[in-house]
Amino acid sequence: MKKILKSGIIDNNPVLIQLVGLCSVLGVSTTVMNALGMGAAVIVVATLSNLVVSLLRNFIPDEVRIPCYIVVIASFVTMVDMVMKAYTPELYAQLGIFIPLIVVNCLILARAEGFANKNKILPSIVDGFANGVGYTITIVILAFVRELLGAGAIFGYELLSGEGIKPIGIIAQAPGSFIVLGMILAVFNYVASKKEESK
Questions:
Q1: Helix, strand or coil for residue 199?
Q2: How would you class 184 by CB atoms within 10 Å of its CB: exposed for 0-12, middle for 13-18, buried for 19 or more?
Q3: CA dihedral angle for residue 163, residue 35, residue 20, residue 173, rounded to 10 degrees
Q4: pLDDT of 161
């Protein structure tokens, strides 16, 4: 279980290693609040869909397994979508189309096909949760850097204020997500290579 958890969060991080789910990572990471909301939605959907796929893995014929996974994932996405719309309408409005797009998020479909379809229930739950957490950590770090440098504030609290300190406007815009993600990938790969060398 520890190995599965570590794999999903660090060793095989869905964003930093597999480079999947980037559409929402780049599109939603304008604020930390958006990133936390999207991360929570992905954790719930990935965990529950892995659970159901693992439960049904012996009953789903191979010929229709992908459509079945999509139906399972879409069901949980619809539930998450309705809960967010009811209880967090402001966040729901900010995330917009990215919540329904979780249905086709490569991360969730890949975990259903690559792991839950071949493993028992508990490891599948841990795998879905770990990959969701790995996704969330990455998107929150990206959003933190973008919000801090792009707006000079976090959660509405001004952190970069004073004479001569101005937010970097491009970081808050779409190109900024690519720039910051590239920097995060560079740091992650550098640290990973140093760890590999020290072994």
A1: coil
A2: middle
A3: -40
A4: 67
DSSP H helical segments within 64-120, as ranges? Answer: 65-87, 89-95, 106-111
Domain boundaries, the chain: 2-198
Rounded to whole angstroms, how far apart are CA atoms 137 and 121?
24
CA pair distance 185, 179, nearest whole angstrom: 10
Report residue 118: phi and psi, to 5°: -120, -5
The model's pTM is 0.91
Amino acid at 33: M
One digit per residue, pLDDT tens: the chain, 199 residues? 899 999 999 999 999 999 888 888 998 998 999 999 999 999 999 999 999 999 999 998 889 999 999 999 999 999 999 999 999 999 999 998 889 888 888 889 999 999 999 999 999 999 999 999 999 999 999 999 999 888 888 887 777 766 667 788 888 888 889 999 999 999 999 998 988 888 7
User: Which tokens belong to 121?
Assistant: 């229930």
Q: Which of 51, 148, 35, 135 is nearest to 95 (CA)?
A: 35
Residue linked to tokens 């990959």? 131
Decide if 86 contacts 47 (C-beta within 8 A).
no
